[in-house]
UniProtKB/TrEMBL annotation:
InterPro entries: Sel1-like, Sel1_AlgK, TPR-like_helical_dom_sf. It comes from Halomonas gemina. This is Sel1 repeat family protein. The lineage of its organism: Bacteria, Pseudomonadati, Pseudomonadota, Gammaproteobacteria, Oceanospirillales. It comes from the Bacteria. SMART domains: SEL1. SUPFAM superfamilies: HCP-like.
Length: 869
């Protein structure tokens, strides 16, 4: 309320005046009883107000008094409100209600002086008290003040009775329309009555009253407050347009603006861009500065970018703050420098919307701190988008460390103001447990609310949550349905998530549909969709064939789009190419810093695969991979260094083992058990082996079984030994099969002898080429203790084992040769040289030589002795 100082001491103007206008001054009115029972009032009219509507002796101005009012009007028009007040006050002292009415208008309109609606209400009330020809007018003006709470406390019940009085007095202004509006919406003490409201509107509509025509058109349109009747709604809308066109023809730009609104996307006459632009141009040509900016905005919406920008620039240059804001917002992604200039000008002139756009632009640009400051200024005025944007800024880590608790505070405020994006973000916060305790029910309720408000991103979040099955229960079909709805609404993240689910799960594989969705999202610039496509073609999953060329193409596009994970994914493709023999791709991946690729390249140099074998290069790349945290490289480098640098080797192996590398655990377990490269520590060795054995590693199970046989690091336990060795055999390990076969055949270390099973295991291993199994069978057939003696068959097994380099088999055969030639005292080396010479020749000749050798009794006996060693 504006404050004004007056010279009249009897009329207070502070808060006491407002109370007087809304309460005590009302009892000054007196007369007869209210003429209507006011059936729409849900509360009785307080007794102190009833005098407002009582009738008494009418009091009207005489000729001389009318001249005084005329002089007062002339004084006010001449800019002399004091004189006007003096003249009118002289008449109020004589009890003329018309003088109070004129004083009320003077204070209400504020043309000749500062507006004072509280004093206006006081004088209107005094004018209503006594019947006169202006009583209805005073009642109508006073009703407007009480309806709007302007200068007085809002009072719908009192406004209702004042409007009814104006209707009864047949003021013939807008009293019926105001009363219809009140009855349509209802208010405190007044119940809504749409039917009665419609009747009042209809009376005025028959007279061509514009607001009545508009109200009835809206009432019968889709979603209106009366029964939907499209034809009737269109009839009222067209009559409304006809009335506006008459005023537009007379040059009234306000009517032109209203006509443009009728043809807007949400207008009563439907979206007709050409008509809308026509009327906006007409208004602009008629000198309406707002229309110029509105026309520019409409042209932008219609895709006429060049003309739209030109009109907005003209309007903005003329000082149209809304045009500056619209222009700046439109240019943010196109010409950010110009956008910042226009938005800065609009913000300096008080546009909160411009301040929000500017803040978002600065946050994403070169000055995030200033951008946050702009948003916080707008947030202080409870601007919903500013609050939602601050919530987004503080929730994410892109520009600064996230502060989820601060973010949630902003989001809750924006949500309470009804901003759907804030509601979506708040739902996601409850879904992820960021800034608040995770609450699936609250998350779902908020996200569904946001979805109902048009936020397709909320549908996508819900769909993804149902597919993940972490915060919300796993429900793939529900997730699929929600993601499809979001994708249909144009949400690229939903297209990507649904496409990924069709290729990688958990939905049933639909490769064609998955690729289609991902390509659609990629065409809209979604870098992650490109990464998913590249990854799918790299792996050849979800029904897609492996195609490294397509994978490279998509990942190249993802790189160009700036997606963070594109480089790593491309490196994996190059690593895959390396695995298929493309050493250049592997080198590129390794040089890009991918630990796995560096480890692969180190192995390639170590084994000479695709490159010339080079131990130093192998060590260099494995070292780089190990330093980058690759456990496999640590394990391989550790094994590589065992002979040259055992201390460093053991450190690398321990680090790899602690990181879960099974090979490193096996190497360490064996080293500690055997005391090789490190001081023997059987208990430590068992500690490394047991987790691997329990996880199903056959070699670890075999070593653990052997430890239980020998009581090495654990108490000897034949039953445990057999169990672990059997586990190793079940996994298909040949060494375990040969080992357990020997133990069972001989009944070693307390394990019950089972000759049949032992021989079967040894024969299976020997048939699959295991030299140890061959050597064992050879010895056993020659010795004839656990198997029926068959020296010839035993020799055959020993020869096969010797051919594969088995040391004890070779030595046994060599000793037999020495004995047959009377050279028992010859060196071991001489015997092995002979054996190598025999086996390097034709295998059939070697076997024949061996059989001839065994025909010598001394050689056969020597072979038996050697086999028993």
């Amino acid at each position: 309320m504006n404050t004004i100082h007056h010279d009249t001491p009897t009329l207070p103007h502070t808060r006491g005046l407002r109370l007087l206008a809304s309460a005590s001054l009302l009892v000054l009115l007196a007369g007869c009883a209210v003429t209507d029972s006011a059936p729409q009032a849900t509360a009785p009219l307080p007794e102190r107000y009833q005098a407002w509507f009582e009738n008494g002796q009418p009091r009207n101005l005489e000729w001389m008094h009318k001249q005084t009012v005329k002089k007062a009007d002339e004084a006010a028009a001449a800019g002399n409100p004091r004189e006007a007040i003096r003249l009118l006050t002289s008449l109020t002292e004589q009890g003329f209600p018309q003088a109070h009415y004129e004083l009320g208008k003077l204070y209400d309109q504020g043309e000749a002086m500062e507006r004072d609606p509280a004093r206006a209400a006081e004088h209107y009330a005094r004018a209503v008290r006594t019947p006169s020809y202006i009583r209805g007018h005073a009642a109508l003006n006073l009703a407007k003040l009480y309806r709007e709470g302007d200068g007085v406390e809002r009072n719908d019940l009192l406004a209702y009775h004042l409007l009814r009085l104006a209707v009864e007095e047949e003021v013939d202004r807008d009293e019926r329309v105001m009363l219809a509006e009140l009855l349509r919406e209802g208010g405190e003490g007044v119940s809504a009555n749409p039917e009665r409201s419609a009747r009042l509107y209809a009376i005025e509509a028959e007279q061509g009253q514009e607001e009545a025509l508009r109200a009835l058109a809206e009432a019968h349109a889709s979603g209106g407050w009366l029964d939907e009747k499209p034809e009737l709604a269109m009839d009222y809308a067209q009559r409304y347009a006809d009335a506006l066109q008459k005023r537009a023809a007379a040059g009234e730009t306000d009517a032109m603006q209203r006509l443009a609104g009728l043809h807007a996307p949400d207008g009563l006459l439907g979206d007709q861009p050409e008509q809308r632009l026509h009327w906006l141009r007409q208004a602009a040509e008629g000198g309406d500065e707002d229309a110029l900016g509105n026309a520019g905005s409409a042209m932008l919406d219609a895709g006429e970018t060049r003309q739209g920008i030109a009109m907005l620039e003209e309007a903005a240059s003329n000082g149209d703050v809304d045009a500056m804001t619209k222009l700046g917002g439109f240019l943010v992604d196109r010409r950010p420098g110009e956008a910042r200039q226009w938005l800065t000008r609009a913000a300096e002139q008080g546009s909160t919307d411009a301040r929000v756009h500017l803040g978002r632009l600065l946050i994403e640009g070169e000055d995030p701190r200033r951008g946050v400051a702009q948003l916080e200024e707008a947030a202080a005025q409870d601007h919903p988008l500013a609050l939602a944007s601050l919530g987004d800024f503080y929730m994410n880590d892109e520009l600064s460390p996230s502060q989820p608790f601060i973010a949630v505070d902003y989001l809750e405020r924006a949500h309470e103001l009804g901003h759907p994006w804030a509601t979506q973000q708040l739902g996601e916060a409850y879904l992820r447990g960021r800034g608040v305790t995770a609450d699936p029910q609250q998350a779902e309720a908020l996200l569904r609310q946001a979805a109902d408000q048009g936020q397709s991103g909320a549908l996508a979040l819900l769909g993804q949550a149902y597919l993940e099955g972490e915060t919300l229960p796993l429900h793939p079909s529900r997730g699929e349905k929600l993601l499809q709805a979001a994708a249909d609404a144009g949400e690229t993240s939903a297209m990507t998530a649904l496409g990924e689910a069709y290729l990688e799960g958990p939905l049933e594989a639909r490769p064609e549909r998955g690729v289609q969705l991902l390509q659609q999202a990629a065409q809209q610039g979604d870098g992650y969709a490109m990464v998913v496509l590249g990854r799918a073609y790299r792996k050849g999953e979800g029904g897609l064939p492996q195609d490294l060329d397509k994978a490279s193409q998509w990942l190249t596009r993802a790189r160009e789009a700036g997606h963070d994970s594109a480089d790593e994914a491309m490196t994996r493709v190059n690593r895959e190419r390396g695995a298929q023999g493309d050493i250049r791709a592997l080198i590129e991946a390794a040089e890009d810093g991918h630990p796995g690729a560096m480890a692969d390249l180190g192995r390639a140099f170590l084994e000479g695969q695709g490159v010339q074998q080079n131990t130093e290069h192998a060590r260099s790349w494995l070292t780089r991979a190990a330093n980058a945290g690759h456990n496999g490289a640590r394990a391989e480098l550790g094994e590589m260094l065992l002979d040259s640098d055992p201390e460093r080797a053991m450190t690398l192996l321990r680090t790899a083992a602690d990181g879960g590398h099974q090979g490193a655990r096996l190497t360490l377990g064996r080293a500690y058990l055997e005391g090789e490269h490190v001081a023997a520590d059987p208990e430590q060795g068992i500690a490394y082996l047991r987790p691997s054995a329990e996880a199903g590693n056959p070699y670890a199970a075999q070593l653990l079984g052997q430890a239980y046989l020998a009581g090495n690091g654990v108490e000897a336990d034949p039953q445990q030994a057999e169990e672990w060795l059997s586990r190793a055999v079940q996994s298909g390990d040949l060494s375990a099969r040969a080992n357990l076969g020997r133990v069972l055949l001989r009944g070693e270390n307390g394990v019950p002898r089972d000759g049949d099973r032992g021989r079967a295991l040894l024969e299976e291993a020997a048939d699959q080429g295991h030299p140890g199994a061959m050597a064992t069978l050879g010895r056993e057939y020659i010795r004839g203790e656990n198997l029926d003696q068959d020296v010839r068959q035993g020799a055959d097994y020993l020869l096969k084992a010797a051919e594969q380099g088995h040391p004890s088999a070779r030595l046994a055969l060599a000793k037999a040769y020495l004995a047959a030639n009377g050279l028992e005292n010859a060196s071991r080396e001489q015997a092995l040289v002979w054996l190598d010479g025999v086996m390097e020749g034709d295998s059939d000749m070697a076997l024949q030589t061996l059989h001839e050798l065994l025909s010598d009794e001394s050689a056969a006996e020597a072979l038996k002795v050697a086999a028993a060693d």
